[in-house]
């Protein structure tokens, strides 16, 4: 099922950044009326004269629309090249009365267009549009990934776009079977999409973000398009209950492992709520100074093995051989879920991005929904209402 646009019925995530400070010109794509002539499939009027939808010496030609050449008597040849002679590909319609470019134009580039129809010849030059600033979006999950039932779709920008609606309208999600969902901006630079409930295992998802050439507000334009296809894997969930101090793992509804744990000690209670698994590291330096706890104030810098990310704020499932004595009986960590080396290695090898962890009964606050991996803690009534208007 394909959702074309809007904030409610659609779907959408890799980081690259490039900023270009350029000058802006007015677009001069030819849209003169010619109501007495037949219209082509692209909306360009086909006349008895060889003509293009861009004027000679035009500047500021937008890059999100194709270049077309038309002649109702038929076209013999068309050549569109950039300033270094690279050919821009295009295709004729069935009766060769229209040629349409299929390659996109580059920003801030010069082009030469030549065409013939019998004795008629067309020779033009033009320059494409130069945005004030470019922004690139990082799309997740990555193409080809298999992820857990809690994985949300994310598009993170390297600038702060001001027209959120334009971005949401540029994103299309196709799912099989049909899934409805909604967009929500968790930060000023990152939009997410998720269903009301966890995905069904086996769901196929295709995300297309047509950002290139799109005005994203205040002179900012998309640097490139993004797309990905991914699959929802098994329904794997972990529940960590501080009343029992056990982590129970289920796969498609059946318990497959139970692991003793030691969570956040008093004053560092592990936040409750739903977490979505993120990155995994065979070895990772845990450094409390990154969130403001100095070594003199009881902080730490500890290398840990088999670290599985639960939050952007630094909560992980990880090996903690120093606290095996407490695992299953008392809380000794600064918020992480301490496990034995064997259990942490099992998690590292068997738990995937997008799997769900629910933490209960710690006495801590609920994990912030804008943490980055806490999306499911935002109520659906809030999420589905959207916040494209800020």
List the helices and strands and how they pair.
Blueprint: E1 2-3, E2 38-39, E3 45-46, E4 51-52, E5 58-61, E6 68-70, E7 77-82, E8 90-92, E9 98-101, E10 110-117, E11 120-128, E12 133-135, E13 137-140, E14 146-147, E15 153-157, H1 164-169, E16 171-176, E17 181-187, E18 190-195, E19 204-209, E20 220-222, E21 226-232, E22 236-241, E23 246-251, E24 254-260, E25 273-276, E26 280-287, E27 301-309, E28 316-319, E29 337-339, H2 341-350, E30 356-360, H3 380-385
Parallel strand pairs: 5-11, 12-20, 14-21, 22-30, 28-29
Antiparallel strand pairs: 1-16, 2-3, 4-6, 6-9, 7-10, 8-9, 10-11, 13-15, 15-18, 16-19, 17-18, 19-21, 22-23, 23-24, 25-30, 26-27, 27-28
Could you explain the architecture of this structure?
The chain is mainly beta. The protein has three domains: 2-20 and 132-232, Sandwich (Immunoglobulin-like), CATH 2.60.40.3710; 38-128, Immunoglobulin-like; 236-370, L,D-transpeptidase catalytic domain-like, CATH 2.40.440. The protein contains three helices and 30 strands. It has helices spanning 164-169, 341-350, 380-385; strands at residues 2-3, 38-39, 45-46, 51-52, 58-61, 68-70, 77-82, 90-92, 98-101, 110-117, 120-128, 133-135, 137-140, 146-147, 153-157, 171-176, 181-187, 190-195, 204-209, 220-222, 226-232, 236-241, 246-251, 254-260, 273-276, 280-287, 301-309, 316-319, 337-339, 356-360. The strands form eight sheets. A five-stranded mixed beta sheet has the order 1-16-19-21-14. A five-stranded mixed beta sheet has the order 24-23-22-30-25, with no helix packed on it. It has a four-stranded antiparallel beta sheet with strand order 4-6-9-8, with no helix packed on it. A hairpin with a 2-residue loop joins strand 10 (110-117) and strand 11 (120-128). The two termini are 29 Å apart. The relative contact order is 0.14.
């Amino acid at each position: 099922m394909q959702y074309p646009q809007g904030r409610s019925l659609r779907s959408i995530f890799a980081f690259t950044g490039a900023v270009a400070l350029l000058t802006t010109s007015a677009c001069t794509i030819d849209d003169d009326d010619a109501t007495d002539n037949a219209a082509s499939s692209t909306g360009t009027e086909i006349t008895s004269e060889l003509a293009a939808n861009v004027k000679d010496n035009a500047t500021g030609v937008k890059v999100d629309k194709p270049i077309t050449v038309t002649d109702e008597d038929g076209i013999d040849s068309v050549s569109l090249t950039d300033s270094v002679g690279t050919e821009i590909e295009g295709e004729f319609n069935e009766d060769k009365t229209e040629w349409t470019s299929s390659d996109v134009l580059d920003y801030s580039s010069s082009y030469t267009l030549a065409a013939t129809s019998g004795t008629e010849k067309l020779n033009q030059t033009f320059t494409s549009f130069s945005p004030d600033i470019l922004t690139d979006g990082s799309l997740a999950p990555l193409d080809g990934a298999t992820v857990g039932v809690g994985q949300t779709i994310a598009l993170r920008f390297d600038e702060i776009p001001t027209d959120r609606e334009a971005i949401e309208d540029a994103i299309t999600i196709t799912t099989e079977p049909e899934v409805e969902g909604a967009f929500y901006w968790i930060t000023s630079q990152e939009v997410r999409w998720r269903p009301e409930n966890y995905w069904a295992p086996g769901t196929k998802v295709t995300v297309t973000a047509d950002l290139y050439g799109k005005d994203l507000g205040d002179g900012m334009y998309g640097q490139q398009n993004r797309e990905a296809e991914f699959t929802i894997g098994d329904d794997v969930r972990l529940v960590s209950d501080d009343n029992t101090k056990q982590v129970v793992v289920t796969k498609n509804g059946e318990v497959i492992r139970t692991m003793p744990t030691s969570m956040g000690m008093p004053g560092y209670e592990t936040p409750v709520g739903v977490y979505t698994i993120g990155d995994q590291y065979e070895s990772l330096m845990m450094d409390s100074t990154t969130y403001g706890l100095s070594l003199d104030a009881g902080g730490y810098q500890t290398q840990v093995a088999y670290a599985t990310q639960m939050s952007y704020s630094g909560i992980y499932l990880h090996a903690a051989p120093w606290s095996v004595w407490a695992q299953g009986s008392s809380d000794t960590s600064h918020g992480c879920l301490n496990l034995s080396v064997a259990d942490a290695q099992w998690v590292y090898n068997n738990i995937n991005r997008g799997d769900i962890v629910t933490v209960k009964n710690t006495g801590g606050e609920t994990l912030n929904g804008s943490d980055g991996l806490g999306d499911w803690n935002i109520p659906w009534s809030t999420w589905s209402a959207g916040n494209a208007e800020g």
